[in-house]
Amino acid sequence: GSKTLWLGLFFAAMPLGQALGMATGGAMSDCGPVDIFGWQAPSWRMVFLLEGCLMLPLSALCWILPTAINSKAQGIDNTSNPIGIPEPMYQPHEALLALLRNSTWLLVVLGFSAYTFVLGAIAFWGPTLVTEPPLGMAPSTGASTFGLVTAVCGVVGTAAGGMLNDYCGGGTKRALRQVALSMTLSFPLGLLAFHTSSHGLFFTLLAMVQLLLFNTQAPVNAVLLDCVGTTLRN
């Protein structure tokens, strides 16, 4: 099935949005101030205004979305309970304790926290990095290029990671092997990228690193759901 792919694409939406924001903001940074109903503002702030206009109809759609897609399957975990035995309900503190006792869930969450830390640092410091020595790119060009590379690699890497996991048959063990291999390979490539002065080599290495990083989005989220019962997922 394509469950892993769709999970990865959903959870990749935030870093992809950040990347598109970097690219758009960088492209507009060289423009002069814009007049918004008599209010002078930097041109890059138009991104926020346009985003708000786009989000209004999308937010309104949330009011009419169904609250349950498959009500017959609620409360039953057909993976961990093939005979369809309903799982017990948990109080919030009981659910937290149950999750903390789940070694797979706990280790994956800790690893995913480190991954999020790295991805956040790349998103925050990346545009600044390319404008300083030894790369020394113009701010608008550097931010736009960095954002576009991140956005493209986010879509391609996430989709490839989900399809690869589904192709290999899914499962927690296969997904964790895929994540471990991707993270391990991305580390030396990232170190090389930070020590090059060539624009072409830097963005090539950056693309490879981000493809490997985003490759983990889908299998990680699939593991987090598969390693716990239906009641804890809800």
TrEMBL record:
One of its GO terms (cellular component) is membrane. InterPro entries: MFS_dom, MFS_spinster-like, MFS_trans_sf. It is a multi-pass membrane protein. The chain crosses the membrane at residues 43-65, 105-125, 145-164. It is found in: Membrane. GO terms for molecular function: transmembrane transporter activity. Residues 1-234 form the Major facilitator superfamily (MFS) profile domain. The keyword Transmembrane applies. This is Major facilitator superfamily (MFS) profile domain-containing protein. It comes from Eutreptiella gymnastica. Residues 1-19 form the signal peptide. Keywords: Membrane, Signal, Transmembrane, Transmembrane helix, Transport. The keyword Secreted does not apply. It comes from the Eukaryota.
